[in-house]
Description:
Layout: E1 7-12, H1 16-26, E2 32-38, H2 41-51, E3 55-59, H3 67-76, E4 82-87, H4 93-101, E5 105-108, H5 113-125, H6 132-143, E6 167-168, E7 171-172, H7 184-194, H8 199-206, H9 210-224, H10 229-238
Amino acid sequence: xxxxxxxxxxxxxxxxxxxxxxxxxxxxxxxxxxxxxxxxxxxxxxxxxxxxxxxxxxxxxxxxxxxxxxxxxxxxxxxxxxxxxxxxxxxxxxxxxxxxxxxxxxxxxxxxxxxxxxxxxxxxxxxxxxxxxxxxxxxxxxxxxxxxxxxxxxxxxxxxxxxxxxxxxxxxxxxxxxxxxxxxxxxxxxxxxxxxxxxxxxxxxxxxxxxxxxxxxxxxxxxxxxxxxxxxxxxxxxxxxxxxxxxxx
Length: 249
């Protein structure tokens, strides 16, 4: 995305009033531009091809094609568009399924206007962690399997399942070969990202500059063939690099 050009946003929701509300909020910002609207997932896919947005605000429950399948189609198509899933509850199983499908973040539908604007900018910049500790809480709940039966759609595809030391149904899983490409420091960084730490917090933990952390993050994403930080967090949980615990929230 050109740093001087406005961020192009596509609004996808079957409720016209909600689309209008988001439009009014986002169009008040000089660096944001609404380039299209869609009322279902199938139309969203067509619009992504036609208007080439930077960010898609994607509702989950829609007619014709739901937001999860539409997100999966957009992210697997080679489009550069980043998807933000819109959900009703922060621990909604559809939010988790959206992250698995390739979404860069999720937001509650009653998000504050300032937080909506900030999220669009953050996701467009590629630093896709929005409410990272909520994301971690969601991942821990669903990857642990407490709500696995409620998950719509398949799990995010990785080269192999969990890592050493994690067991599923009594059977030890094998380490994903892609992890072997990471240096020890990059593996540590990935674990810190999965904890929901920001670049500044990671820099403080490892006594590094934020610029160095950003370089490590870019290399990790490239080596693991992942779109953004949120996908790295999902990957870390699903490969067993991070083992879900039962912390107090």
